[in-house]
Structure formats: structure tokens, C-alpha cells
TrEMBL record:
GO terms for biological process: carbohydrate metabolic process; N-acetylmannosamine catabolic process; N-acetylneuraminate catabolic process. Gene3D superfamilies: Aldolase class I. Its EC number is 5.1.3.9. Converts N-acetylmannosamine-6-phosphate (ManNAc-6-P) to N-acetylglucosamine-6-phosphate (GlcNAc-6-P). It comes from the Bacteria. This is Putative N-acetylmannosamine-6-phosphate 2-epimerase. GO terms for cellular component: cytosol. It catalyses: an N-acyl-D-glucosamine 6-phosphate = an N-acyl-D-mannosamine 6-phosphate. One of its GO terms (molecular function) is N-acylglucosamine-6-phosphate 2-epimerase activity. It comes from Tersicoccus phoenicis. It is an enzyme of class 5 (isomerase). The gene is nanE. Pathway: Amino-sugar metabolism; N-acetylneuraminate degradation; D-fructose 6-phosphate from N-acetylneuraminate: step 3/5. The keyword Isomerase applies.
Length: 237
């Protein structure tokens, strides 16, 4: 298990983070809706929220100022699309996310910066306006493999996520969370907080992810995406 060095990270130990996101064109794709879902999730016991898009992040940060918030900005749906550049990362932090989730793979970033350079700028509170007066951001590196995780840790990421497991071509997409990947990363990086994310659809799977070495567990679809949940039941009938 990891040894966090920041109170926000420590507050997430062994706890649930709920991802509140809706896809483009869906009825729930609205900041007010996502903020309400986030509030309901916290009332249900969530210790943190993960949210996408500047408007959603800003409103959730306003409504839940004391709840750890992981923010990201999706640009497209292929390649490096999770907070792909330093510009996007700065905007996510400025919108109110204390933890900025970025693509943490070894793939080339669209702005040409290295992962280490992006992390360093966020840690320095670099606003892009020639100063470093902003509050430093914590950085969550969304990874897809053990090698991604090792590289992200070397780059200075504060947290490592398994968000991209099965989506980068490095590993097959598992039916459920990639527990093997979680175990392998936890064994190699015991002192870096590991966040389990991706295809965690039941409480039993969440527990298994924690037991595999996760510092905290992110659940999204199974809690906050009624279209998919309805589809599961409809298909069963």
C-alpha cells in the first residue's frame, strides 16, 4: 500500500471516488446535472469526485469545496485525449480541480512537452502567464500499462491511475477491472498512490481492486450513467 504525503491523497485512502461524467449529446450532459449527481454521491459516502469539462469542474468545486476533486478535459476520443496538453491541464486546475488527471502514457503529447515537464509546471503553480503564483496542483497520471506507470512515477506524478488499461494497445481489455495490472503496479511502485479505475461495476469488484493494491477506487458508469445501467437490465430481460 502507498505512503501518501499530502492530506488530500491521505483523505482518499481506502475510499470511493465517483466519476460524474456524461457523453456528448446525452440528456444528462449539463453542469448542473453533474453537480447534483456529485452531491448525491458524496451524501452516499463518496470521498472524492472525478469530473470532466471546465464548466462541470467549476460548479462541482463550488458546491463541494471540501471534497477532493479530480478534474480532466477530454479532447476528442482517440490517442492522447485526456487533458492532452499543459494548456488544458492549467485550465482544469484553474477551474477548481485540486488534482489534475492527465494522459500518463508514454505516447507523444500534442504540445510536444514531456510528461515530466507537464507535471513540473503543474507542481510549480505555473499559470502560463510568466509567473508561478498559483496553488500547486496534484497530478494523476492515467496509465495503460506497468511501463506507463513506471515512467509516470519517474516523471513525478502524485497518483497513478489504471484508467487507460485496455485502451492503448499495451494490454487486452479485461471484462471488469484489470486486477493483474493493479497488482503488478502496486508491487513495483509501493510508495506511489495507485488509483483503480476502469470497468469496476460491482461492490465486489471495488473490494477486489482495493485488495489488489489500490489506494482508492474510482467508479463511474455503474453509479452515474443510467443509460448504460438500464441497458444491462434491459439486455438481461
Amino acid at each position: 500500500m502507498s505512503t501518501p504525503t499530502h492530506p488530500v491523497i491521505d483523505a482518499l485512502r481506502g475510499r470511493l471516488i465517483v466519476s460524474c461524467q456524461a457523453y456528448p449529446g446525452e440528456p444528462m450532459r449539463h453542469p448542473e446535472t453533474m453537480a447534483q449527481i456529485a452531491q448525491a454521491a458524496v451524501e452516499g459516502g463518496a470521498a472524492g469526485i472525478r469530473a470532466q469539462g471546465l464548466a462541470d469542474i467549476a460548479l462541482i468545486a463550488e458546491r463541494l469545496p471540501d471534497v477532493p476533486l479530480i478534474g480532466l478535459w477530454k479532447v476528442g476520443a482517440d490517442g492522447v485525449f485526456i487533458t492532452p496538453t499543459l494548456r488544458h491541464a492549467r485550465a482544469v486546475h484553474a477551474a477548481g480541480a485540486g488534482i489534475v488527471a492527465i494522459d500518463g502514457t508514454r505516447r507523444t503529447r500534442p504540445d510536444g512537452l514531456t510528461l515530466a515537464g507537464t507535471v513540473a509546471a503543474l507542481h510549480a503553480g505555473d499559470t502560463g502567464a510568466g509567473d508561478t503564483g498559483a496553488e500547486p496542483a496534484l497530478v494523476m497520471a492515467d496509465c495503460g500499462s506497468v511501463d506507463d506507470a513506471l515512467a509516470a512515477a519517474d516523471a513525478g506524478a502524485d497518483l497513478i491511475g489504471t484508467t487507460l488499461a485496455g485502451y492503448t494497445g499495451d494490454r487486452p481489455k479485461t471484462d471488469g477491472p484489470d486486477l493483474d495490472l493493479l497488482t503488478r503496479i502496486a508491487d513495483r511502485l509501493p510508495d506511489v498512490p495507485l488509483i483503480a479505475e476502469g470497468r469496476i461495476h460491482t461492490p465486489a469488484q471495488a473490494t477486489a481492486a482495493r485488495d489488489a493494491g489500490a489506494h482508492a477506487v474510482v467508479v463511474g458508469t455503474a453509479i452515474t450513467h443510467p443509460t448504460t445501467i438500464t441497458g444491462w437490465f434491459a439486455a438481461a430481460l
